[in-house]
Write a structure and sequence with these properties.
single chain; about 210 residues; mainly alpha; Vanadium-containing Chloroperoxidase, domain 1; PAP2/HPO_sf
């Protein structure tokens, strides 16, 4: 538990330092990627990225939270399982809250677009659901953790690419979003005693 909390603090510190470092001006790598991937946001690539953003975005954590709450209510006869699910709802909420720090950095978007840029709220949303899913899977289906990690990683990458292609986020915005979610997730999961996972206790229905 101490290891996870320490790593979470380190990643959160890196997230905050990155946000501060890029808040005033976009570094060269941001400009290069934006000039390449975001150059045709108003064309077909942008249309595809827009469709992807509708799915891989804020709607995901909202749906995931509702599913977890409904699942928890169905597990009222199993306090251990119900408690696990409700703690995962809290974990999801804290991870999603990472995007609330945008006003702190006040970073401008690559193109004219509402709201601030760092971190990407869409990537925060997808990463939050992915992180929570991995933690929950470690408790309930440990043999599938690698598959869930892979699927979550792919979803985060796709969400990140969509936002960069739409030219509404810099590369460091989407990277920072992932960094922040993992940091907040590790710290919160350790505090909620979700890490390290102890699947045997929950599996018995206690």
């Amino acid at each position: 538990m101490k290891f996870h909390a320490t790593l979470g603090v380190i990643l959160l510190a890196a997230f905050l330092m990155l946000g501060r470092a890029v808040s005033d001006a976009a570094p060269g790598i941001d400009q290069a990627v934006a000039g390449t991937l975001g150059a045709d946001w108003h064309g077909a690539p942008g249309d595809i990225a827009y469709a992807g953003s509708l799915v891989l975005g804020p709607v995901l954590p909202a749906v995931a939270a509702l599913v977890l709450i409904a699942w928890a209510l169905l597990q009222r006869s199993r306090p251990g399982r119900m408690g696990l699910l409700l703690r995962c709802v809290l974990l999801l909420a804290v991870c999603r809250a990472v995007s609330l720090v945008k006003p702190f950095f006040e970073r401008a978007r690559p193109r004219d677009y509402p709201d601030f840029s760092f971190p990407s709220g869409h990537v925060v949303s997808v990463a939050s659901v992915g992180f929570t899913a991995v933690v929950l899977c470690a408790w309930l289906a440990r043999e599938r953790v690698k598959l869930v990690v892979f699927c979550a990683s792919v979803a985060v990458v796709l969400a990140a690419v969509c936002r960069v292609v739409l030219d509404v986020h810099w590369l460091t915005d989407v990277f920072g979003a992932t960094l922040g979610v993992v940091g907040a997730g590790l710290l919160t999961a350790a505090a909620l005693r979700l890490l390290p996972a102890r699947p045997s206790g929950v599996g018995s229905g206690t």
